[in-house]
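chain below, 79 aa
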Amino acid sequence: MLSEELEDTLRRALAIAGDHAHEFATLEHLLLAMTEDPDALSVLTGCKVDVEQLREMSTLRVKSSQMSKIYCKSPQNCA
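prediction:
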């Protein structure tokens, strides 16, 4: 059983992927969602992660045009 907070974070990752018309939620979507999760933020800051840099890098990666092409099986399927 997942905690309510973890479920919210996973839903947020899926929503981020959907907002960018990505077929799959990837690690970048999850990392971006984790930057809004208080429990994840505690762990990230405890591990000396620069959360703002993580947020910026994840956002750039999610918004990049290459993201939609990562999982394309053939060029015809890529928009």
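DSSP finds four helices and no strands in the chain. The chain has a mean pLDDT of 85.
thats it, cya
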